[in-house]
């Protein structure tokens, strides 16, 4: 499905929660990334039909879903979408099976509801928990039930609002893979809201980065990481070292502590070495800035060390804007 946002925006009085968005989404899995309060959930809810835009047009393929000008606003249950929330949104008095079947009345027969709900629970590997109520399930199991409920209606698009933030780190990593596999297996698209950069980079075919209600960059994770649109994106996605007044930057992995060809030499004093499991993050004071570089061993605080910058990896924001 091709999703087109043509000037979609949201205002609350004089407050612009989401500035006009002009965007075409074709990829099968997209993440919306940004800090708390940047407007990412509001944008997601406008796609879902849970929040009415203040202006603009929204189209799914060639079907007009919302238009302020043409007075079109398709109801959420007619948009062929499903949504998975941060708090799971399960009914505590219903079994897992009943929760999964909740959105099916009116879509399929009573007999088909159970069959489809059981099939969805099977896809998330929870068939044996069909009769269990949410209060007796773990957080990860509740999230699987919420996912099964979403896929049971066979949507074209599944929207995820910070869907993994309530889970611990290990389970979150596992659920990322599950979500991607399931969305792909049913032939749907996914749009996933998160404030976690690692999560966004790992899951996305493309990423949409928001700041203060504005979409500041949209593209493949690799392109956004290596060619950020501005200093906000550069600092928010990964770590950045700035060469001159937030105009040119280089990533820590492109700085060596050992001489190489085609490198520019700098020097600095070690402030701290932080162990990250597979390597050390070395904090180096260079003039008035703190630079970040990686090495396989720690360095003594106060030691002066040389930094060798790979020129071909220096990214100029001014060039990008030009």
Can you give me a brief rundown of this structure?
The protein has about 325 residues and is an alpha+beta fold. The protein folds into two domains: about 5-225, Rossmann fold (3-Layer(aba) Sandwich); about 240-320, OB fold (Dihydrolipoamide Acetyltransferase, E2P) (Beta Barrel). The chain is built from nine helices and 19 strands.
Characterization of the model:
With 322 residues, the protein is an alpha+beta fold. The chain has two domains: 3-226, P-loop containing nucleotide triphosphate hydrolases (Rossmann fold), CATH 3.40.50; 239-321, OB fold (Dihydrolipoamide Acetyltransferase, E2P) (Beta Barrel), CATH 2.40.50. The protein contains nine helices and 19 strands. A six-stranded mixed sheet has the order 7-8-9-3-10-11, with helices on both faces. A hairpin with a 5-residue loop joins strand 12 (241-242) and strand 13 (248-250). Helix 3 crosses helix 4 (139-152) and helix 4 packs parallel to helix 5 (169-185). The two termini are 33 Å apart. 34% of the residues are buried.
